[in-house]
Automatic annotation (TrEMBL):
It is an enzyme of class 5 (isomerase). Catalyzes the conversion of GlcNAc-6-P into GlcNAc-1-P during the synthesis of uridine diphosphate/UDP-GlcNAc, which is a biosynthetic precursor of chitin and also supplies the amino sugars for N-linked oligosaccharides of glycoproteins. Residues 198-292, 307-446 form the Phosphoacetylglucosamine mutase AMG1 domain. This is Phosphoacetylglucosamine mutase. GO terms for molecular function: magnesium ion binding; phosphoacetylglucosamine mutase activity. Mg(2+) binds at S69, D286, D288, D290. Residues 55-99, 115-178 form the Alpha-D-phosphohexomutase alpha/beta/alpha domain.
C-alpha cells in the first residue's frame, strides 16, 4: 500500500520495545505513559495513528502532546488531541492500542492498512498534525520519532516545540477554526498569550487584587510560560503582584519534586520550598500546567487547601450570579459536573445553596468534558484541580447580542463575554483557571479565607490498595458502586451505615495497577476508620 515501505523503514529506526509475555501497551486515561525509554517506538506509532485520524476527519489537524504531567522526570507520555482540542474519541483508543502493540515492523504496516480499510480512510488524502512537548529531556527523542512517522505518511507537521498541555489543545482548535466565524484565536503561542491577557484585563475592569500571589510551577513547563504570559500585560494594567517560584527547568531531577498541584493535593500540605509564608495567597500548577490548586497557611489553623471542588463551586457561584444580572437566567442552563471524588459538602453546596444541577461522571476528564457540553454553561472540575468552564455557542451569542437595559446588565454581559475568552474551552488549563480565580476573588473582594468559608469540607481519606487482581472489580452508577464481585458492595454498604454523614466507594485505578478507596464522614477519625475498613474489604475480595 501507499506508505508501507516508508512506515517499515521508519519503524526500524524507532523500534518498539516488545514487552514481557502477557503484558501490552494500553492507551489509557492519559494516553500512553511510562518510563521514557519505552516510548520511542510507541510515539512513532502514535504518529501513524494521528495521521490516520486526520485523514478520517477530512484532513482537520490532530494534536499530539508529549508529556507525563506530574510524574517524575524519567517518565514521559504521549497522547492525541482531537480537532476541537478535546481528548481523542474513546473508540480510537482501541485503535491506538492495536497499532502500538503490533509485534513487528511488517505487522505494523499491516495493522495500519487494516485500520485504514476498516475505517474507510483515504490514505492519499492530505493530513495534518500539530505537536508539542513539555520540558522533559526525553521529549526531544520522542519528537524525532513522531516527526519520522509524519514524514513516512506524508503528513503535514507543525512543531510548536515546548508548550504546556493546554497550549497545545488551544493550538489544535485555533488551527481548525482559523478563518471561520468560530475562529478560536491566532495560531501561535503568542496568540494564546494575546487572547488570555486581553480577556484578563477586560474581566478585571481596572480592579486590583490585594496582596501577592505565589505561583509554584513544579519546575515544569508552566514556569517559563507563566513568565512569558506576564510580559503581555502592560505593567500599569497588571492587576496583581505575581511571584513565580519552582520554575527551574534546567535541572530535570527537580521536576515535580516536592512541589506542584499533585504534591499539594495528595500530601495535603504546601511545598516545603520556598518556605511558606503565613497568610500569603498561593497556588500550584502541575508539571504540564493543566491542574491548579490554591492554598494558604492560616496563622491560626495552619494549611488550608482550595482544590478543584472549591474552584468549581467558586466559578459556578460567580457565573450563576452574572447570568442572573445579565437577565439570562431563564434562557441559559448552567450545570456542574463532578466525579465521585468530589467532596460531599461541595455537591451539597452547589445543589442546595447555589441551586444548580450537579451530574456525577466516571473519573477522567473526557467524561466530565462530554457531559459539561450538554449545558449552555457547563462547569467541570476533578477534585485534583483539573477542569474548566464550557460556554456553548448559544451562550456566547447571548452575551454579545443581548441589548442591555441598565448599566448593571451591560456590566454583567461584558464580564461574561470576557470570561468566555479567558477560560480555555478545550481542556483544564492552570494558567487560564488561575486568572479566572483571581478575577472572581477581585470582583467579590474576597481573600482565600473568605472563599474557604463558603462551606466546610467533610473530612475524607483516599487510599491506594494493591490487590492481586483488580479486574474482578467492576463499577456502576458513575463508579460510586461496585457491581462485581457480587456481594462486595453489600459489605461496603453495611460499613458505611455505621458512620455519620458517610460515603465510601472503591474502584480500580485507570492509571495505576491498584484499587482506590475513598471515604468521607462527619469527623476525621470516622473517615479514616471507614477508609481502613473498606480497604480491608477490597483486599479480601481482590485476592
Ligand atoms: C483519584 C484521582 O485523583 N484519580 C486521577 C487518576 O485516575 P485513576 O483512574 O484514579 O488512576 O489520574 C487521572 C489522569 O490524570 C485523573 O483524571 C484522575 O482524577
Ligand atoms: Mg497534568
Amino acid at each position: 500500500m501507499v506508505h508501507d515501505d516508508k512506515i517499515i523503514a521508519g519503524s526500524a529506526k524507532h523500534p518498539i520495545v516488545v514487552l514481557d509475555k502477557g503484558q501490552h501497551y494500553k492507551y489509557g486515561t492519559a494516553g500512553f505513559r511510562m518510563k521514557a525509554d519505552l516510548l520511542e517506538g510507541v510515539t512513532y506509532r502514535v504518529g501513524l495513528l494521528a495521521s490516520l485520524r486526520s485523514r478520517k476527519l477530512n484532513s482537520q489537524a490532530i494534536g499530539v502532546m508529549i508529556t507525563a504531567s506530574h510524574n517524575p522526570a524519567i517518565d514521559n507520555g504521549v497522547k492525541i488531541v482531537d480537532p476541537q482540542g478535546d481528548m481523542l474519541e474513546q473508540e480510537w483508543e482501541r485503535y491506538a492500542t492495536q497499532l502500538v502493540n503490533a509485534p513487528s515492523d511488517a505487522e505494523l504496516a499491516k495493522v495500519y492498512n487494516t485500520l485504514a480499510t476498516d475505517l474507510r480512510i483515504d490514505i492519499s488524502a492530505p493530513a495534518k498534525v500539530v505537536y508539542g512537548r513539555d520540558t522533559r529531556p526525553s521529549g526531544h527523542t520522542l519528537v524525532t520519532a513522531l516527526a519520522s512517522a509524519l514524514e513516512a505518511t506524508e503528513t503535514e507537521a507543525a512543531d510548536f516545540k515546548i508548550l504546556t498541555t493546554p497550549q497545545l489543545h488551544y493550538l489544535v482548535r485555533a488551527t481548525n477554526s482559523e478563518g471561520t466565524p468560530l475562529a478560536y484565536g491566532e495560531v501561535s503561542e503568542a496568540g494564546y498569550y494575546n487572547k488570555l491577557s486581553e480577556a484578563f484585563v477586560r474581566c478585571m475592569k481596572g480592579k486590583k487584587i490585594e496582596g501577592p500571589l505565589i505561583v509554584d510551577c513544579a519546575n515544569g513547563v508552566g514556569g517559563p510560560k507563566l513568565n512569558e504570559f506576564l510580559k503581555y500585560i502592560p505593567q500599569e494594567k497588571l492587576p496583581f503582584e505575581v511571584k513565580v517560584v519552582n520554575d527551574d527547568i534546567l535541572r530535570p531531577e527537580v521536576l515535580n519534586l516536592d512541589s506542584g498541584a499533585d504534591f499539594v493535593k495528595t500530601k495535603q500540605r504546601a511545598p516545603p520550598h520556598p518556605k511558606p509564608q503565613p497568610g500569603v495567597r498561593c497556588c500550584s500548577f502541575d508539571g504540564d500546567a493543566d491542574r491548579l490548586i490554591y492554598y494558604w497557611i492560616d496563622p491560626e489553623v495552619g494549611f488550608v487547601m482550595l482544590d478543584g471542588d472549591r474552584i468549581s463551586s467558586l466559578a459556578a457561584s460567580f457565573i450563576g450570579d452574572l447570568v442572573e444580572s445579565a437577565g439570562l437566567k431563564e434562557e441559559l442552563r448552567i450545570g456542574v459536573v463532578q466525579t465521585a471524588y468530589a467532596n460531599g459538602a461541595s455537591t451539597n453546596y452547589i445543589r442546595h445553596h447555589l441551586k444548580l444541577p450537579v451530574i456525577c461522571t466516571p473519573t477522567g476528564v473526557k467524561h466530565l468534558h462530554h457531559v459539561a457540553q450538554g449545558f449552555d454553561i457547563g462547569v467541570y472540575f476533578e477534585a485534583n484541580g483539573h477542569g474548566t468552564v464550557l460556554f456553548s455557542p448559544d451562550a456566547v451569542t447571548a452575551f454579545k447580542k443581548t441589548d442591555p437595559q441598565s448599566p448593571a446588565q451591560k456590566d454583567a454581559l461584558d464580564t461574561l463575554a470576557a470570561l468566555s475568552d479567558l477560560i480555555n474551552q478545550t481542556v483544564g488549563d492552570a494558567l487560564s483557571d488561575m486568572l479566572m480565580v483571581e478575577v472572581i476573588l477581585a470582583h467579590k473582594a474576597w481573600s482565600l479565607r473568605d472563599w474557604s468559608m463558603t462551606y466546610s469540607d467533610l473530612p475524607n481519606r483516599l487510599v491506594r490498595v494493591e490487590v492481586n487482581n483488580k479486574d474482578v472489580f467492576r463499577t456502576t452508577d458513575a463508579e460510586r458502586r461496585l457491581s462485581h464481585p457480587e456481594g462486595c458492595q453489600a459489605e461496603i454498604d453495611s460499613e458505611v451505615k455505621k458512620f455519620k454523614d458517610a460515603r465510601s466507594f472503591a474502584r480500580a485505578s485507570g492509571t495505576e495497577n491498584a484499587m482506590r478507596v475513598y471515604a468521607e464522614a462527619a469527623s476525621r477519625s470516622e473517615a479514616n476508620e471507614l477508609a481502613d475498613r473498606v480497604a480491608g474489604i477490597v483486599s479480601r475480595w481482590g485476592v
